Amino acid sequence: MKDALLATVIDEHATVEAFASLLAYEEKALTAASPLEVLPSIIDKKTELTEQLASLEKSRDAQLRDLGLPPGWKGMELAAAQDARLAEHWKLLQAVVQRARRANTNNGLMIRVRMNYNQSALAILRGAASKASVYGPDGRMAGV
């Protein structure tokens, strides 16, 4: 049964690696002048990988329960303490999870900066539009 758990952890590691790579690609897209061309496909792939990770986590928790261990982090820590191979792959998985978490946080900040910039640009444009409305269709100031 521990072989199945090891296989699941290895699959999780590969999936999180793919997710982290996708986040690097997303970061590159977010720095481009026009990211809208590639972001939809990135979002679709992120959704797919997230669903795959959720499924693998459910499988891992079920395997831990079958071994008489609690699900989640605590169960994995106990299982890893009993198996050196599992401990090695669990450690690798945790490292890539941290890397992906940092990249995701960074991308979120980049998105927030871009949104703030767009909101500021819209406010300026709206202000310019309202100032422009004091002129009539004939080019003269209204009320004059």
TrEMBL record:
<keyword id="KW-1005">Bacterial flagellum biogenesis</keyword>
<dbReference type="InterPro" id="IPR036679">
    <property type="entry name" value="FlgN-like_sf"/>
</dbReference>
<protein>
    <submittedName>
        <fullName>Flagellar protein FlgN</fullName>
    </submittedName>
</protein>
<keyword id="KW-0969">Cilium</keyword>
<dbReference type="GO" id="GO:0044780">
    <property type="term" value="P:bacterial-type flagellum assembly"/>
</dbReference>
<keyword id="KW-0282">Flagellum</keyword>
<keyword id="KW-0966">Cell projection</keyword>
<comment type="function">
    <text>Required for the efficient initiation of filament assembly.</text>
</comment>
<comment type="similarity">
    <text>Belongs to the FlgN family.</text>
</comment>
<dbReference type="Pfam" id="PF05130">
    <property type="entry name" value="FlgN"/>
</dbReference>
<dbReference type="InterPro" id="IPR007809">
    <property type="entry name" value="FlgN-like"/>
</dbReference>
